[in-house]
Design goal:
mainly alpha; elongated
Length: about 120
């Protein structure tokens, strides 16, 4: 599943790189007077550029945002792992109670009682 995700991300990044290169080539050709100026296209390019962060002046803000997103993703990952382990522990407890009825725990965590 992760390899498919990485392949999808790689494909998306390659497509994005190609489109950015196309825009740069277009702008260079306009600057060199090889193509006529199309103001509608330039407005679209400017709108795209305005959505990008300014890495020089906002680098600490970008780092803080990325750090926050990274920490959120790690927290979700840890919670998912914890939930999975708790479920495995409850399954193990149920199996133990089937093998050793009346032992410690006495079926307290039985899935039939939790449902």
């Amino acid at each position: 599943a992760q390899s498919a995700l990485y392949e999808s991300l790689d494909s998306s990044l390659n497509t994005l790189t190609q489109r950015i290169n196309t825009m740069v080539t277009y702008l260079e050709k306009i600057q060199q007077n090889q193509l006529p100026i199309d103001y509608a296209i330039l407005r679209d390019v400017a709108a795209i550029a305005d959505k990008l962060p300014n890495f020089d002046s906002d680098s600490h803000l970008l780092h803080a945002d990325l750090s926050c997103d990274y920490n959120d993703a790690l927290t979700i990952s840890y919670l998912a792992a914890l939930t999975k382990q708790a479920s495995a522990l409850f399954d193990l407890t149920d199996k133990f109670n089937v093998i050793q009825p009346g032992s410690v725990g006495g079926g307290i965590h039985s899935s039939s009682k939790l449902a």
